[in-house]
Design a protein that fits this description.
3 helices; globular; five-stranded antiparallel beta sheet; 9 strands; alpha+beta
């Protein structure tokens, strides 16, 4: 199939690349259904998205509703970094395209307390076929809170919807993309 090396597919659970032979027959069918070999519209390397958010209690280091530390948690930083990476490429996608996260690498370097205003930025670094890599950074003032990278795969909205439906994970009407300034 065009767009695949013959050994890789998109895992239907995490939508990440895995060896095709490691998937069940049903999963192979779904994974191959998501693959799109059309070239992605030009996403310019260097394009940047920046947003600011105030850390609140839902973003703190906690497990099972027990707060461990009242500071900006790694999981929340990763979620916001992935969101910023998505926002950096959305303006360049066609109406029939969407993007799915396939990887994130993040080093959490410093703490920020509840109430801190954190700047998240994502910069498009590489576009290889339909795979887009962004560098991401979170700053509190001039202090680097975290930095790393996100990887997304541009996919057909129709194929994504069909694949999610096959898993019983239909899109909910309130899951619409929004942008933050």
């Amino acid at each position: 199939m065009a767009g695949l090396s013959g050994v890789d597919a998109i895992n239907p659970v995490c939508l990440c690349l895995v060896p095709l032979h490691s998937l069940s027959i049903a999963s192979r069918a779904f994974a191959l259904h998501l693959v799109d070999s059309r070239p992605v519209k030009t996403i310019p390397p260097g394009h940047t998205f920046t947003m600011h958010l105030r850390v609140d209690g839902t973003m703190t280091a906690s497990f099972f509703e027990v707060v461990l530390h009242p500071v900006y948690a790694t999981f929340a930083i990763a979620q916001h970094a992935e969101y910023a990476g998505r926002q950096a490429i959305l303006p360049f996608l066609d109406a029939d395209e969407d993007a799915v996260g396939t990887a994130i690498s993040l080093e959490h370097r410093a703490s920020a307390p509840v109430g801190a205003v954190v700047e998240h930025s994502a910069r498009v670094e590489r576009v290889e076929g339909r795979t887009v890599t962004c560098s991401v950074r979170a700053l509190w003032g001039d202090r680097i809170i975290a930095e790393g990278s996100t990887v997304q795969r541009v996919v057909s909205r129709e194929r994504l919807r069909a694949g999610l439906a096959a898993l019983g994970a239909d899109e909910r009407p309130n899951n619409k993309s929004t942008s933050t300034t």
